[in-house]
């Protein structure tokens, strides 16, 4: 890896009805707090970026998310990405206007790849994050893309889709392993490595973090430059500072956390 | 001397201008987004933000009729801050778009960062401060700032560079020319170090 890379630790906040929630395998959602309060705490602890995913993502709730984004932007002075239900340039614009730095598109990008190109053309590739939910498929010995929060299987090869998304203008890939999400067994580093080897944009590894060493594995074994986790931070198990200490001890360059 | 200085953030219709506005408000400025020449002339300080492509930003700045307002503020001697592509536009030209003419306030050109590293640099990195500057007061010798860029400024007069970062090679990322301070990083997205830099700008605007 380029010695000048500084890995990013990225807490992820799943938001519904204006609250942060965390489920295990998409069931049993547990309230994890107020998004603004949590985001400000992570900023103060030294998080490098934040990701907010609107997990309701129904169009009638969009204004709730816009309100969350604009309240976060009042209090948080690190970059943040907003995803979940963004289907058009207009949706993207609303989130960016409210104060988001980047938007991530997932299902909509597969259904209409042009949306990535449109967002990149309108706001720059640095704004356009392609989120990919991938799961190992035994029959084809490849990772395939899932949509609608993991409920719908496609025949799309995840690595090929990542390459296509980048060629369309995605400036970053947010890569979640459906096999590992919620397991606490660590990132799928093979999946991560397959994607980071195929594309020349930053890749954020996601899904499966149970220990702080898993974060370091995502960088060292997976080649990710960003590592995303939710539960280990939300419920006070670990702080950002502890995460960075472990990563630093494993030889990864990080921005020191605030003491 | 005003305790809450008025800072005009030039609004030419691109980018996430609200971030810069909110960060300036957080550190004590009365920050407004504006393209009204009267408001800009009345401001204690002026910020030129920018995001996206050099040529598109120059076009948008000219379409918003703000080129003369930039020169007016720079010539009037008020504290002036260029951020990201707002910094790049202060140069004469950019390798990104040979047909686009820059503002020519910092002599020099904007050039690609090397292709031996992933472009853009989208991460935090540590400034290496070359020259003491009131904008760096209290920040230590190596503050951490957030970057998103594929280009960096190469001034004709090397003394105009006040800070660098290392990414593939040494990149010039902050510049000072009289009342103009310009930086490639995003202080409005750089947590406490970034807010401290903006607080120094607001403090300067109070003088």
UniProtKB/TrEMBL annotation, chain A:
It catalyses: 5-[(5-phospho-1-deoxy-D-ribulos-1-ylimino)methylamino]-1-(5-phospho-beta-D-ribosyl)imidazole-4-carboxamide + L-glutamine = D-erythro-1-(imidazol-4-yl)glycerol 3-phosphate + 5-amino-1-(5-phospho-beta-D-ribosyl)imidazole-4-carboxamide + L-glutamate + H(+). GO terms for molecular function: imidazoleglycerol-phosphate synthase activity; lyase activity. Transmembrane segments: none annotated. It is an enzyme of class 4 (lyase). Pathway: Amino-acid biosynthesis; L-histidine biosynthesis; L-histidine from 5-phospho-alpha-D-ribose 1-diphosphate: step 5/9. InterPro entries: Aldolase_TIM, His_biosynth, HisF, IGPS_HisA/HisF, RibuloseP-bd_barrel. GO terms for cellular component: cytoplasm. CDD domains: HisF (cd04731). Pfam families: His_biosynth. Belongs to the HisA/HisF family. IGPS catalyzes the conversion of PRFAR and glutamine to IGP, AICAR and glutamate. The HisF subunit catalyzes the cyclization activity that produces IGP and AICAR from PRFAR using the ammonia provided by the HisH subunit. Heterodimer of HisH and HisF. HAMAP family: HisF. This is imidazole glycerol-phosphate synthase. It comes from freshwater metagenome.
UniProtKB/TrEMBL annotation, chain B:
Keywords: Amino-acid biosynthesis, Glutamine amidotransferase, Histidine biosynthesis, Hydrolase, Lyase. Pathway: Amino-acid biosynthesis; L-histidine biosynthesis; L-histidine from 5-phospho-alpha-D-ribose 1-diphosphate: step 5/9. Transmembrane segments: none annotated. GO terms for molecular function: glutaminase activity; imidazoleglycerol-phosphate synthase activity; lyase activity. The keyword Ubl conjugation does not apply. One of its GO terms (biological process) is L-histidine biosynthetic process. Residues 9-201 form the Glutamine amidotransferase domain. Pfam families: GATase. It catalyses: L-glutamine + H2O = L-glutamate + NH4(+); 5-[(5-phospho-1-deoxy-D-ribulos-1-ylimino)methylamino]-1-(5-phospho-beta-D-ribosyl)imidazole-4-carboxamide + L-glutamine = D-erythro-1-(imidazol-4-yl)glycerol 3-phosphate + 5-amino-1-(5-phospho-beta-D-ribosyl)imidazole-4-carboxamide + L-glutamate + H(+). Heterodimer of HisH and HisF. This is Unannotated protein.
């Amino acid at each position: 890896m380029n010695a000048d890379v500084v890995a990013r630790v990225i807490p992820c906040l799943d938001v519904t009805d204006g609250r942060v929630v965390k489920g295990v395998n998409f069931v049993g959602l547990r309230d994890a707090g107020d998004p603004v309060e949590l985001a400000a705490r992570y900023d103060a602890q030294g998080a490098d970026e934040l990701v907010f995913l609107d997990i309701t993502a129904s169009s009638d709730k969009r204004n709730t998310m816009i309100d969350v984004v604009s309240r976060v932007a009042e209090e948080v002075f690190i970059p943040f990405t907003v995803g979940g239900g963004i289907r058009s340039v207009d949706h993207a614009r609303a989130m960016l206007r409210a104060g988001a730095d980047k938007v991530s598109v997932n299902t909509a990008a597969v259904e209409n790849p042009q949306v990535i190109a449109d967002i990149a053309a309108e706001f720059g590739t640095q704004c356009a994050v392609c989120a990919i939910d991938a799961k190992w498929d035994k029959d084809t010995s490849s990772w395939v893309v899932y949509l609608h929060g993991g409920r719908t299987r496609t025949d799309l090869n995840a690595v090929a889709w990542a390459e296509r998304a980048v060629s369309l203008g995605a400036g970053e890939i947010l890569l979640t392993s459906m096999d590992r999400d919620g397991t606490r067994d660590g990132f799928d580093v093979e999946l991560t490595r397959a994607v980071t080897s195929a594309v020349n944009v930053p890749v954020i590894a996601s899904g499966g973090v149970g220990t702080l060493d898993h974060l370091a594995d995502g960088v060292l074994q997976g080649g990710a430059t960003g590592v995303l986790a939710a539960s280990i931070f939300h419920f006070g198990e670990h702080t950002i500072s502890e995460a960075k200490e472990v990563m630093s001890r494993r030889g990864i360059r990080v921005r020191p956390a605030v003491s | 001397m005003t305790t809450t200085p008025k800072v005009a953030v030039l609004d030419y219709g691109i980018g996430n201008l609200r971030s810069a506005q909110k960060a300036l408000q957080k550190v004590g400025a009365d920050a407004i987004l504006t393209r009204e020449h009267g408001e800009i002339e009345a401001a204690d300080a002026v910020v030129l933000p920018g995001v996206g492509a050099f040529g598109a930003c120059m076009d948008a700045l000219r379409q918003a009729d703000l080129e003369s307002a930039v020169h007016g503020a720079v010539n009037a001697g008020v504290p002036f801050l260029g951020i990201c592509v707002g910094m790049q536009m202060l140069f004469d030209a950019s390798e990104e778009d040979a047909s686009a003419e820059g503002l020519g306030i910092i002599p020099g050109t904007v050039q690609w960062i090397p292709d031996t590293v992933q472009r853009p640099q989208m991460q935090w990195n540590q400034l290496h401060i070359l020259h003491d500057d009131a904008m760096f007061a209290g920040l230590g010798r190596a503050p951490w700032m957030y970057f998103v860029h594929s280009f960096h400024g190469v001034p004709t007069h090397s003394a105009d560079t006040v800070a660098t970062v290392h990414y593939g090679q040494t990149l010039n990322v902050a510049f000072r020319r009289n009342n103009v301070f310009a930086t490639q990083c995003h202080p409005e997205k750089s947590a406490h170090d970034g807010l401290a830099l903006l607080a120094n700008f607001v403090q300067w605007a109070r003088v």
